[in-house]
Amino acid sequence: MDVGQMLAHCNVTYEYVYDNKHPQPKGLKKFILKKFVKPIVVGEKTYPKNSRTAPEFVITDEKEFEIEKNRIIDHIKKTQELGANHFDNKESHSFGKLTSAEWNNMFVKHLDHHLGQFGV
Questions:
Q1: Number of domains in the chain
Q2: Residue 101: enclosing H or E segment and its boundaries?
């Protein structure tokens, strides 16, 4: 994964929130995500190295660094402008309703994990 692909990968989290581009999981998949994946994604602990990811997050095609960088900046700014109250008890794409702290953990942990991979 190069840096453009990494930023595109990180943008998927925000696409789940702001775009209607990814179908929501249903049935058994949603149950598994809520029961087993949610605590890892929204909890306090950092992600383990080489963790598996959902297929929507796998970016294999070439991505333009500047475009993806501007997208992530815009997503972060929008999230900051909306503020914590907007996210408190808001339904997530895959995990049901989350507290603002859980949303914050999810956003921060994912970016920190991947920016750290690239020494940023």
A1: 1
A2: helix 100-117
